[in-house]
């Protein structure tokens, strides 16, 4: 058993429910050869993403121990509950590359809960055990941070070759108005979207999350609205749209215009 580099204590075996309803005892033998983070590292856990409301629940944690593909993490505040057992979260962390901080993230499944003996506090603290399910890739916690483009933003979009009016957009998706007479959209359908980003046209698939009429929200009755989530993203698309979003942010800041008046944003609860 390797000690946490902070010298603060040791771990009980990880406890998780077995298929037979009992407990699995999984001894920790630390092997960090396949991990880019180790004991003592600070991490941010993406516990929940609600695509419909574009809310992302981020909680701070610390790595206690690593055993191959398994990690034991400090319990978060608020705590990760039992209902997340066998559910997927994303573990994110910062690495320095070329004198810059780059955030990476990888999917992990919650496999159980543990008790950690904190010698400094003379008490047992909670911990969460997870199993890594994929390789780390660059990860943006601001993926669902929305900006409101203007006619000067040089950003337009069409769906099935029909021009739509972008209300707000993020790396995760877009909300827009459209002409219901010329374009029929329904929830859960996948559509072909084309974004003109500064004169560069990129094709991207999008899943329609919901549609509604202006009259339903006390707005102009003949307006139709939709919210969509981008799927099958490419690194190039991510980079180009990210640069455009940053450009719109700077434009908004210069004009003292609110960037995302209805953006729920990131719920950082750690």
Q: How does this structure look, described?
A:
The protein is mainly beta and 270 residues long. It is built from 1 helix and 17 strands. It has one helix spanning 235-255, and strands at residues 9-11, 14-17, 23-26, 42-50, 55-67, 70-74, 88-97, 100-118, 123-132, 137-138, 155-159, 162-169, 173-178, 190-197, 200-213, 224-231, 266-268. The strands form 3 sheets. A 6-stranded antiparallel β-barrel has the order 4-5-6-9-8-7. It has a 6-stranded antiparallel beta barrel with strand order 11-12-13-16-15-14. A two-stranded antiparallel ribbon has the order 2-3. A hairpin with a 5-residue loop joins strand 2 (14-17) and strand 3. The longest helix is centred in the C-terminal third of the chain and has 21 residues, at 235-255. The protein is elongated and about 65 Å long. Mean pLDDT is 78; it is low at 1-11, 13-34 and 258-266.
What's the arrangement of secondary structure elements?
Blueprint: E1 9-11, E2 14-17, E3 23-26, E4 42-50, E5 55-67, E6 70-74, E7 88-97, E8 100-118, E9 123-132, E10 137-138, E11 155-159, E12 162-169, E13 173-178, E14 190-197, E15 200-213, E16 224-231, H1 235-255, E17 266-268
Parallel strand pairs: 5-17
Antiparallel strand pairs: 1-8, 2-3, 4-5, 4-7, 5-6, 6-9, 7-8, 8-9, 8-10, 11-12, 11-14, 12-13, 13-16, 14-15, 15-16
């Amino acid at each position: 058993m390797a000690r946490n580099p902070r010298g603060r204590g040791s771990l009980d075996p990880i406890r998780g429910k077995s298929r037979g309803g009992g407990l699995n005892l999984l001894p920790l033998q630390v092997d960090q050869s396949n991990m880019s983070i180790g004991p003592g590292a600070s991490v941010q856990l993406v516990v929940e993403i609600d695509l419909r409301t574009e809310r992302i629940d981020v909680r701070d944690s610390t790595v206690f121990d690593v055993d191959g593909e398994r990690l034991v993490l400090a319990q978060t505040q608020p705590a990760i509950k039992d209902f997340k057992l066998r559910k997927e979260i994303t573990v994110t962390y910062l690495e320095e590359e070329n004198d810059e901080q780059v955030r990476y993230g990888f999917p992990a499944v919650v496999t159980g809960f543990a008790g950690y003996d904190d010698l400094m506090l003379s008490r047992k603290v909670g911990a969460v055990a997870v199993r890594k399910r994929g390789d780390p890739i660059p990860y943006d916690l601001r993926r669902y941070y929305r900006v409101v483009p203007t006619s000067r933003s040089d950003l337009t979009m069409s769906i099935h070759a029909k021009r739509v009016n972008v209300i707000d957009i993020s790396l995760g998706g877009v909300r827009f108005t459209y002409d219901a007479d010329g374009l029929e959209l329904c929830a859960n359908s996948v559509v072909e979207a084309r974004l003109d980003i500064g004169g560069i046209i990129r094709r991207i698939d999008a899943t329609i999350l919901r549609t509604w009429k202006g009259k339903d929200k006390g707005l102009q009755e003949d307006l139709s609205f939709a919210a969509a989530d981008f799927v099958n993203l490419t690194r190039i698309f991510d980079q180009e749209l990210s640069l455009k979003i940053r450009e719109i942010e700077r434009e908004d800041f210069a004009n003292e215009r609110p960037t995302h008046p209805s953006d729920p944003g990131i719920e950082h609860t750690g």
